[in-house]
């Protein structure tokens, strides 16, 4: 029986280097770094600069939705974050009147008059939405050549006046950057303006640091699988042709969405049961009874003296035959009386979603031009054009990740509980800590993670 001997405290990933292939690559003016922030929904965030004069926003990166919106002249939004020490960290709020490059987008009414064009996006999470008006402004980018050049891209964005639900409780408090396939998404706009090729990449490092690059088509060494395109609402939907756990292979077939706005992986039956039971069959540690405080069904004991665990190898076979080894399938949950690791998948009542935990250790290429998903192992530091300097916000009004989230502690209770960087939070300290082998996981935000896929 071949197992991967996985150390709880860390792991060395085989890093591969993505070549430029003469591509013109672009990223945000504040750098290509992204950071996974546990207390803000355990999503990947990046600093983006918008408008004139430029204003910075710490936005969540979401391949499951399309519109880029930021809080704007808002009547309902998160305006600051509170830390455990009582410090108040103000978040930037956009205002079209304050930007000299902002332009309204008129809409024709039934009377023939022109008015501001409204938008409303509802998300699957209960009572979670963003609404306001559409505006145009410039998104500040840079090229990844040396020396870099500044590119001001005119884009359409949502002036988010009213946010509800999860956006007030911890996720994307300073805006959501939709990276989906619709014409309204920033990658689509950059392609239509011929600024960047119709492709982008996101790297998900096991230390929580990632990268984002527009125009990236990947390398010749990457594996790939085609997208399944729904013309009415296209998403990054792929086909899985089989699941292998150790030597147990099943030719089960199902479709799933690759969604960076989902922290865990969601599978419906029969895929969920097949993967879970096959993992359980090969797991060498004692399985523990289910805990209603966490969403994972298959959890295993870690003794006090244990420093490593033997994990079954999990592989997905994609349409076309390429293998997708799952490098980070577990979540480590620390309670008051025990420590356990869990298979990081949640039973879904409907759609299948490949979440961030199954993307860890890869540079993922969303090649919309050739309609394929590509992947290559990476630690996100050996990607050409990457910077190894720490992620830093460009000004003091945006909360830095070191303050926004304690990187080793998070509660599985509701998001109203206090944790570093939680919005306006004054509740008691969390009593349960969640982490993966290499990073922290916010467990009971699981409803939120899957629900950043928009409903139009």
From TrEMBL:
Keywords: Aspartyl protease, Cell membrane, Glycoprotein, Hydrolase, Lipoprotein, Membrane, Protease, Signal, Transmembrane, Transmembrane helix. GO terms for biological process: proteolysis. The keyword DNA-binding does not apply. It is found in: Cell membrane. It is a lipid-anchor. Residues 414-429 have a biased composition (Polar residues). Residues 408-429 are annotated as: Disordered. One of its GO terms (molecular function) is aspartic-type endopeptidase activity. It holds the Pfam family TAXi_C. The chain crosses the membrane at residues 438-455. The active site is at 62, 259. Residues 44-376 form the Peptidase A1 domain. One of its GO terms (cellular component) is plasma membrane. InterPro entries: Aspartic_peptidase_A1, Aspartic_peptidase_AS, PEPTIDASE_A1, Peptidase_aspartic_dom_sf, TAXi_C, TAXi_N. The keyword S-adenosyl-L-methionine does not apply. Its main location: membrane. Belongs to the peptidase A1 family. PANTHER family: ASPARTYL PROTEASE FAMILY PROTEIN 1, ASPARTYL PROTEASES. This is Aspartyl protease family protein. It comes from Thalictrum thalictroides.
């Amino acid at each position: 029986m071949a197992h991967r001997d996985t150390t709880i405290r860390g792991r060395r990933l085989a890093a591969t280097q993505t070549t430029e292939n003469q591509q013109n690559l672009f990223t945000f003016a504040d750098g290509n770094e992204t950071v996974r922030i546990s207390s803000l929904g355990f999503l990947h965030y990046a600093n983006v600069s918008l408008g004139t004069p430029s204003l910075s926003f710490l936005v969540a990166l979401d391949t499951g939705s399309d519109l880029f919106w930021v809080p704007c002249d808002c009547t309902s939004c998160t305006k600051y974050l509170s830390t455990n020490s009582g410090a108040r960290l103000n978040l930037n709020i956009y205002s079209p009147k304050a930007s000299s490059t902002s332009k309204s987008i008129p809409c024709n009414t039934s009377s023939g008059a022109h008015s501001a064009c409204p938008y409303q996006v509802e998300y699957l999470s209960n009572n979670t939405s963003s609404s306001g008006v559409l505006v145009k402004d410039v998104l500040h980018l840079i090229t990844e050549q040396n020396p870099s050049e500044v590119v001001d891209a005119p884009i359409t964005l949502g002036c988010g006046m009213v946010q509800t639900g999860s956006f007030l409780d911890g996720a994307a408090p300073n805006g959501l950057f939709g990276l989906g396939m619709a014409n309204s998404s920033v990658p689509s706009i950059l392609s239509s303006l011929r600024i960047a090729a119709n492709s982008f990449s996101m790297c998900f490092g096991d230390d929580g640091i990632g990268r984002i690059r527009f125009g990236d088509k990947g390398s010749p060494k990457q594996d790939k699988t085609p997208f399944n395109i729904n013309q009415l609402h296209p998403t990054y939907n792929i086909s899985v042709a089989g699941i292998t756990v150790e030597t147990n292979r099943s030719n089960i077939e199902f479709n799933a969405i690759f969604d960076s706005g989902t922290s865990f992986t969601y599978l419906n039956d029969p895929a969920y049961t097949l993967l879970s039971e096959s993992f359980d069959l090969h797991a060498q540690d004692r399985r523990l009874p289910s805990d209603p405080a966490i969403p994972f069904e298959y959890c295993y004991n870690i003794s006090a003296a244990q420093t490593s665990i033997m994990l079954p190898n999990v592989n997905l076979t994609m349409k076309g035959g390429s293998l997708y080894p799952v490098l980070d399938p577990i979540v480590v949950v620390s309670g008051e009386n025990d420590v356990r690791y869990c298979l990081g998948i949640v039973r879904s009542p409907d759609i299948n979603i490949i979440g961030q935990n199954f993307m860890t250790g890869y540079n993922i290429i969303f090649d919309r031009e050739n309609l394929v998903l590509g992947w290559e192992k990476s630690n996100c530091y050996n990607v050409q054009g990457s910077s190894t300097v720490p992620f830093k916000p460009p000004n003091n009004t945006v909360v830095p990740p070191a303050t926004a989230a304690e990187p080793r502690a998070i509660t599985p209770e509701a998001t109203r509980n206090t944790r570093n960087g939680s919005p306006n939070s004054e509740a008691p300290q969390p009593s349960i800590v969640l982490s993966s082998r290499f990073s922290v996981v916010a467990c009971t935000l699981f409803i939120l993670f899957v629900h950043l896929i928009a409903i139009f």
